[in-house]
Amino acid sequence: MRFPITRHRLPQLAADLAIVVAAWFLAFQLRFDPDIPVFYDRYYDAEIFALLVAIKLSVFALFGFYNRWWRYVSTRDMWRAVLGVTAASLVANPLVFTFFDVHRVAVPRMIWVLDWLVCLGFVASSRLLARTIIERPQGSSLVARGKEVILVGAGDAAQLMLKEMLRTPALGYTPIGLIDDDRRKKNLRLNGIRVLGTSDELAQILRDRRPDELLIAIPSASGDVRQRIVEIARAEKVPVKTLPGLNELIAGDLDLAEQIRPVQVEDLLGREPVEVDLEAIHSYLAGKVVLVTGAGGSIGSELCRQIARADPQRIVLVDQAEGALFDIERELVDERGFSAGVPVLADVRDPNRMGQVFERYRPQVVFHAAAYKHVPLLEANPLESVRNNVLGTRTVADVAIAHGVERFVLISTDKALNPHSIYGQSKTLCEWIIGSHGDRDDVPTRFVAVRFGNVLNSAGSVIPLFRRQIERGGPLTVTDPEMTRFFMTIPEAVALVIQAGAIGGRGRIMVLDMGEPIRILDLARNMIRLSGKEPDRDIEISFIGARPGEKVHEELFAEGETWQPTSHPKIVALDVAPVDRAWLEQALDELEALVHSGDTLELVGRLARVARKPKRLEADAVEAAPTSESA
User: Fold this and answer.
1) Fewest beta carbons less than 10 Å away: which of 93, 195, 237, 276?
2) Is there a contact between 450 and 510 (Cβ–Cβ < 8 Å)?
3) DSSP readout, 455-482?
4) Nearest partner of 555 among 615, 609, 511, 505, judged by Cα
C-alpha cells in the first residue's frame, strides 16, 4: 500500500480524520435524536474513534484518495470516493463489532447506513468545496480582470481554456461568451459562460458584444473553418488568436494556456489531421537502433522527435552541421526526456566515416534526410549538389547494405518529377538508386523512397521569407502570379514518412497525398492580412520572375507513371520499373569522376542527359513489388 504522508497531504488527512469522527458521531445523533440510550455510550470511546480512523483512512489510501490534489478533483474522482467510502464502511462494520461487542449490544444497522451517508457527503463536499474556493474568480464578476474574449468552440479544449482563464487571473483573459455550431447548445452555460450562438451569427455577436479578442478553441478545425472565422473577425476589426492544430499540440506540451497565439497562415492551410497506424510504426522501430542522416535539418529533426516516441533502443543522429546537431540532441534530452540519442558529426559523402559509424552502432533502420535542397543555390553549385545528394545517397545506401540494415527510407521531393533543376535531377537519381538497390535479390534491405512537396516553415521556405519581408515593411517578392506549390506541415509529412517505412515495398517510391496546390500569390496576401495590413495598400507585392530551375507548377506524378493504393489512404505506391542497375552504376561512376575533376559544364550536361533518358528494365522482367507489410 502506498500511503504518501507528506506535508502537502497532511491537511487532506486531517480533514478526512475529522470527517470520519464527525460522521460516526452524527450517525448516532440522527438515529436517536434527541437522547442516545446510555448503553451506547461505549461506542463514543476514544478507542472506537481510533479504530474507525485507522480503518477508514487506510482504505481511503488504498483507493488513492491522497494521490490527487483536491483542486483538480474530477467526476471520476467522485465515483472513486463513493467506492472508497463504501469499502471503508464495509470493512469497519465487522471489525468494530468484533473488538467492541459490549454486553452483546450491537450497533444498529441504521447507524452504519447513516455513517456511510454522512461520511460520503462530507468527503465529496470537502473536495468540491476546496476546488470551488481555489478556482473562484478573484474580485467582482462584473469587473473584467483582463481582455474580454469570446471563444469559438464549446468542446473539451474550450472547457479547458475556460477553467484555466477563470482559475488563473494572471492570464489576463475574461471569457464573456462561447460560439458553437451545435444549435442545441445555444444559451447553455459552461462553467458559467453562456453559448451565444453559432458561427453563422458570429458577425452580429461581435458587433453586439465587442470583445477585445476572439479565440478559436477548436484544435481540429480545418483551414477553411479558420479562414472563415478570421475573415468575419477582420471585417468587424476584432483580433483573432487560436489554439494550435492537433498535430502541433500532440508534438508539443499540452499546456493550452501557454499555446494561445495569433492565427498564422499555416492554420489557414491546415488539413484534416493525419492518422497513422501506431502499431505498425511501433513494430518496426521499437527496440531498434535507428540512424537519421541530416538529423539537424527541418525534416531530420522532426524525424528524431517522432521516432523517439516509438521507443527505439537508440537514435544515431548524423549531421555535418555542429550547431544543428547540438540543438536536436539537447532538445531530445532536456525537453523530451530521451537520453538514448547519439550525436555523430559525420559527412554522408565520406564512405570511410560512414562505414565506421555503421560498424560501431549497427543501425537496423535508416532514414536518409541529408541533402542540399535550395534550388537557386544548387543551380550555382552543381558539383556540390551531385556530390552531396547523389553520391552521398549511394554511399549511405551501399554502407547500409554492407552492414545488413533492415530498412532504408529516402526523403525525396516532388521536384524529382520531370526535373528542370540541378536539385530535381539529383533527387531523381537518388530515387533510382533506391529503386535499383531495392530490386536486388541478393539484398535483404527493404528500400523505399518517399516523395512529397514543400513543408511549411522548413529552413529557406517561402513562409519564413515572407514573414521577414513583412517585418521590413515589404515588398513581398512573388516569382510568378500563377505559381503554385503543394504544402504540408512538417509533423504531418514526417508522420507519413515513418508510416511509409512501415508499409514497406522493396524499392518502391511512395507518394504522399499533399492535398490541393496553393497559389503563392494567395499565400502572400493572406500573410499580409494576418499581420493586420492590407496587400497593395500597406505592403506591396512585387513579381520578380521565376528563379533558375523553378517550375510554375510542381507535380507529384510524372507523365506515364501509374500508382497503386496502399494500406494508408494518404500514401500511394508508384508502379514504375526500376532503372537498369549496370547502366545506373556506370552513369554514377561517370558523374563521380566529373565531380572529382571539377568539370562543371560537362557535369551539368551529363546529369541532364542521364536524368532525361534512363535505361529501365523491361516491365515483364520486374516482379510486382509489395505495397503492404504483409506482402
Assistant:
1) 237
2) yes
3) ETT-TT-HHHHHHHHHHTT--EEES-TT
4) 511
**What domains are there in the chain, each with its CATH number?**
10-135 (no CATH), 147-268 (3.40.50.720), 278-455+486-514+555-621 (3.40.50.720)
Give the model confidence (pLDDT) of 122-180 as tens digits.
888 877 777 666 555 444 444 445 788 999 988 777 887 887 787 777 778 888 889 98
Q: Is the pLDDT of residue 591 over 90?
A: yes
Give me the sign of the Cα torsion angle 283, 284, 288, 292.
negative
Residues paired with residue 575 on neighbouring β-strands, in sequence order: 562
Residue matched to cell numbers 479562414: 227
- CA angle 555–558–561, rounded 5-degree value: 135
Q: Contact 311/287 with Cβ under 8 angstroms? A: yes
Cell numbers describing residue 599: 568539370
Q: Residue 374 in 3-state DSSP? A: coil
Q: Quick one: pLDDT at residue 59? A: 81
Contacts of residue 11, Cβ cutoff 8 Å, sequence gap at least 6: none
Element at 25 (helix H, strand E): helix 10-32
Q: What are 625's three cell numbers?
A: 513489388
| CA 74, 79, 82, 86 torsion-angle sign | negative
In angstroms and rounded to an integer, the radius of gyration of the C-alpha atoms of the chain is 33
**b/e for 360-379, b at 16 or more Cβ within 10 A?**
ebebbbbbbbbbbbebebbb
What per-residue confidence (pLDDT) applies to 105? 56
Angle between helices 392-402 and 422-438 (to 10 degrees): 20
Calpha distance 169→165 (Å, rounded): 6
Q: 254-265: per-residue pLDDT in tens?
A: 455 556 777 777
Q: Give the cell for residue 78.
A: 467522485
Task: Write the burial class of residue 78 (CB in 10 Å: 0-12 exposed, 13-18 middle, 19+ buried).
Answer: middle
Residue 76 pLDDT: 66
pLDDT, greater one: 465 or 258: 465
3-state percent breakdown (helix, strand, coil) of the chain, nearest 5: 50, 15, 35
Weakest mean pLDDT among 13-27, 125-139, 291-305: 125-139
Q: Is 457 left (phi over 0), alpha (psi -120 to 50) or beta?
A: left
Q: Is the separation of the CB atoms in 198 and 181 below 8 Å? A: yes
What are the phi and psi torsion angles at 447 (to 5°)?
-95, 140
Tell me the three cell numbers of residue 81. 470516493
Q: Which three three-digit cell numbers place residue 169?
A: 487571473
The stretches of 236-387 forming alpha helices (DSSP H) are 246-251, 265-268, 278-285, 298-308, 322-330, 351-361, 375-380, 382-385
Q: Mean pLDDT highest for which of 266-275, 277-286, 329-338?
A: 329-338
- Cα–Cα distance for residue pair 433/398, rounded to 1 Å: 10
Q: What is the DSSP letter of 102?
A: B
The C-alpha atoms of residue 331 and residue 575 are separated, in whole angstroms, by 39
- CA 442-446-448 angle, to 5 degrees, is 130
